């Protein structure tokens, strides 16, 4: 597992966000701890990503390694929850994060599992400057934490090769999302630590779509995620008012 410490960070990196996730780093793989919503969400989104990609690439989603041969980037990989899931589907995964402790946790958890993945402490901007490109770029629950969304998205878009795909997952910005994602999840239900999200940074779908279109990426599917408070369950929905995902393609 590769790990690389970068010196200067681009403008999209918020030091306060890095400090917050550094403090939480050791809890990534505790399925009953502060990251339990991510573990629940991960099961839902991995199946969604697998099925949609297989549909587009004419592959069997029920096969043992349906994503074999695909070069995948997991931006803001955290402790590696999504990265490991994609690697188990056969993808060649590169997980990146700007928080060194997250990369250390992810690398440690992956040791001895013989998975086709590597981790690196590097930003999307730095990776784009190196000219890297991928068959699939995963940008999940990251855009609402960056300080410079246009700059960050421009770098992420450059990382999708011609013919490649991308998935973005985030939270909409409207009164409903404030009630559900901030007041509900952080203050009333206490599913997330207070301060996890800043409502003003939630991007509306149209804002992301404009940034994608500017770099030649088209949105080919939009889907929402419904959360059931009583069961802590999550399911897909056509309602994009709170949690949503965009599937993108570069022709």
Automatic annotation (TrEMBL):
UniProt cross-references to HAMAP family, sorted A to Z: UbiG
Pfam family, one: Methyltransf_23
Gene field: ubiG
SUPFAM superfamilies: S-adenosyl-L-methionine-dependent methyltransferases
Record CDD domains: AdoMet_MTases
Entry EC no(s): 2.1.1.222, 2.1.1.64
Entry keyword annotation includes Transport: no
Catalyses which reaction(s): a 3-demethylubiquinol + S-adenosyl-L-methionine = a ubiquinol + S-adenosyl-L-homocysteine + H(+); a 3-(all-trans-polyprenyl)benzene-1,2-diol + S-adenosyl-L-methionine = a 2-methoxy-6-(all-trans-polyprenyl)phenol + S-adenosyl-L-homocysteine + H(+)
One Gene Ontology term of the molecular function aspect: 2-polyprenyl-6-hydroxyphenol methylase activity
Gene3D superfamilies, per the entry: Vaccinia Virus protein VP39
Record-listed S-adenosyl-L-methionine binding positions: 45, 76, 97, 140
Name of the featured protein: Ubiquinone biosynthesis O-methyltransferase
Any GO BP annotation: methylation
Family the UniProt entry places it in: Belongs to the methyltransferase superfamily. UbiG/COQ3 family.
Enzyme class, spelled out: transferase
Superkingdom of source: Bacteria
UniProt function note: O-methyltransferase that catalyzes the 2 O-methylation steps in the ubiquinone biosynthetic pathway.
Keyword list, A-Z: Methyltransferase, S-adenosyl-L-methionine, Transferase, Ubiquinone, Ubiquinone biosynthesis
Pathway: Cofactor biosynthesis; ubiquinone biosynthesis
């Amino acid at each position: 597992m590769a790990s690389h410490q970068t010196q200067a960070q681009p403008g999209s990196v918020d030091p306060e966000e890095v400090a917050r996730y550094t403090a939480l780093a050791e809890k990534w793989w505790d399925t009953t701890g502060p990251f339990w919503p991510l573990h629940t969400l991960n099961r839902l989104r991995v199946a969604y990503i697998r099925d949609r990609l297989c549909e587009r690439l004419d592959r069997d989603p029920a096969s043992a390694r349906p994503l074999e041969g695909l070069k995948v980037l997991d931006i803001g990989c955290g402790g590696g929850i999504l990265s490991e899931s994609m690697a188990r589907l056969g993808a060649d995964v590169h997980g990146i994060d700007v928080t060194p402790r997250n990369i250390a946790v992810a690398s440690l958890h992956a040791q001895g599992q013989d998975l086709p993945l590597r981790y690196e402490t590097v930003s999307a901007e730095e990776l784009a400057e190196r000219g890297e490109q991928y068959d699939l770029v995963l940008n999940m629950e990251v855009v609402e934490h960056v300080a410079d969304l246009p700059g960050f998205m421009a770098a992420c878009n450059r990382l999708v090769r011609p013919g490649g795909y991308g998935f973005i997952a985030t939270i909409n910005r409207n009164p409903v999302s404030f009630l559900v994602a901030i007041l509900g999840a952080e203050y009333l239900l206490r599913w997330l630590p207070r301060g996890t999200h800043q409502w003003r940074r939630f991007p509306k779908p149209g804002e992301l779509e404009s940034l994608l279109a500017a770099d030649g990426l088209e949105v080919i599917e939009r889907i929402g995620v419904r959360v059931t408070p009583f069961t802590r369950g999550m399911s897909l929905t056509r309602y994009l008012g709170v949690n949503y995902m965009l599937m993108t393609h570069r022709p």
